[in-house]
Amino acid sequence: MAVIPDDPPHVPKPSHRLVVAVDDDPRIREALQCLFDSAGIDSHIFATSEEALESFKQDAVSCLLTDLHMPGIDGWELQRLTSAAYPQLPIIVISAHRDTQPALRGLKPFAFLAKPFDGEELLSAVHSAFALEANSQPSL
Q1: Most confident range, picked from 14-23, 73-82, 100-109
Q2: Secondary structure of residue 35 in the 3-state scheme
Q3: Whole-angstrom Cα distance, residue 74 to residue 97?
């Protein structure tokens, strides 16, 4: 079982925003990479939650985007782990299962988008997550 490190997360610089995205479908990962690249958004795209959790040890993550139904650590568990360790981290959930309601499992993602998702809608959610994340940073 993957464990989030005990150390507090790296605090991103205001000018640097990073999306970590997790989806087991290679077509979705490719589409996300193209979308984020075209919008000038730094992103790390992973096939597994385990890979994404490793990135939290090195990277200042501003937003997590995750599918729900994946092998290994699924999106439900990934959201639970990251929410416990980083309660201010905005999490965007994407799922092909339109009847999936994260609130039924006691999870409250920042945004929930059904696949196939609209690229502009996803970018809008990411930019809103960045704004929320920036507002939650302590003032210097």
Answers
A1: 73-82
A2: helix
A3: 14
Average pLDDT, the chain: 83
Q: Whole-angstrom Cα distance, residue 91 to residue 109?
A: 5
Q: What is the reported pTM?
A: 0.81
Q: In this model, does residue 88 exceed pLDDT 80?
A: yes
> What does the domain layout of the chain look like in residue ranges?
18-135
Distance CA 79, CA 77 (A): 5
CATH of 18-135, one of 1.10.20.140, 3.40.605.10, 3.40.1400.10, 3.40.50.2300: 3.40.50.2300
Classify residue 9 by burial, with Cβ atoms within 10 Å: 0-12, 13-18, 19+.
middle
Share of the chain above pLDDT 70, in %: 76
